[in-house]
Design a protein that fits this description.
This is 3'-5' exonuclease. The protein is of the alpha/beta class. The protein has helices at residues 15-27, 72-77, 88-97, 108-114, 122-130, 150-161, 163-176, 180-192, 215-235, 239-242, 245-254, 259-263, 274-289, 311-314, 316-336, 340-343, 346-354, 362-371, 376-392; strands at residues 11-12, 29-38, 48-56, 59-63, 82-85, 104-107.
Amino acid sequence: MLEPREGVPPVVADAEALARVVEAFAAGTGPVAVDAERASGYRYGQRAYLVQLRREGAGTALVDPVGCPDLSALGEALDGTEWILHAATQDLPCLRDIGMLPSELFDTELAGRLAGFPRVGLGAMVESVLGYVLEKGHSAVDWSTRPLPEPWLRYAALDVELLVDLRDALEKELDRQGKLEWARQEFAAIAAAPPPPPRKDPWRRTSGMHKVRRRRQMAVVRELWTARDRIAQRRDVSPGKVLSDAAIVEAALALPADVQALTALPGFGSRMGRRQLEQWQAAVDRAKALPDAQLPQPGQALAGPPPPRAWAEKDPAAAARLSAARAVVSALAETLSLPQENLIAPDTVRRVCWEPPRDASEDSVAQVLAGHGARPWQIELVTPALAGALRTAKP
């Protein structure tokens, strides 16, 4: 499919055009297909730079959130309507930021996982389910570009062109497999989920951090990461374009004494200006000057059980429970033709095995699973096997 059925619509970038779209989509019928394009790797943050919608009776709309930063009127017009998204959890945060949030949704990627499809990208799903090939060459472009090139807009319009058809076909397949109620519970959980809390110590996720062992070196990573993030936010560019993770780790390991020593490190070469080098060296110097009491502690405070690789030494009985639990979950997932992580979250299995209910009865296990957010369909399927594994596992 190379062209949308009604052609590529004009980009909606002002209040008057947006009002017409709101009116058209409010008068449309059936579910609405929704997609959003971000500029990951180019801009700071994950804001939406284009929103695509399609609904029966309204056609396709391409809305520019730069020209129309508040789309709450559009969100309100679609209240009570089922939204169709592909990989909904990726798009919902940026849609929430501009006033759009569904009360009901259908996630075609998650539906594909539950139905047992081996490849669940949008292009692969459209091809295997509907028999169309979508051109996917513009998925990683800089969507903050203005004006957006015509080929990009065509690609964006095609992303929602077949979502309604895909949703209908997947609903039939899930119903045929007896999994439609499972999917509905999953979709409802996604729609009702609150925004995730901010990450604690995001600098610890710097790529290559596993090489950094000493607390003073960790402090350098923290200072450089924080300085980079501040600059990236001010310039509205991806942090990696300001300074690479690899360069941050190199500086942390080397602890350079001055700008000259810093310049010799990979990532701080001659193409970097003197002023930039001085600001990075200043961050290194701040970390080097910190008193020991203010240095970061190695590792993050765990909110749950320790990493499984440490269980055999810390608690052999828990390690045995986890091994048995993983085996029964894997076998059950294979029988049901769906990924293990969709049958039950691996983190939930770990938590139950680390701190199991005292009697390991099915009722107790079911209560613990519910407390960790498992859906009713998951509890019904997993509880008998998991309770059996907890009772019989031996270190």
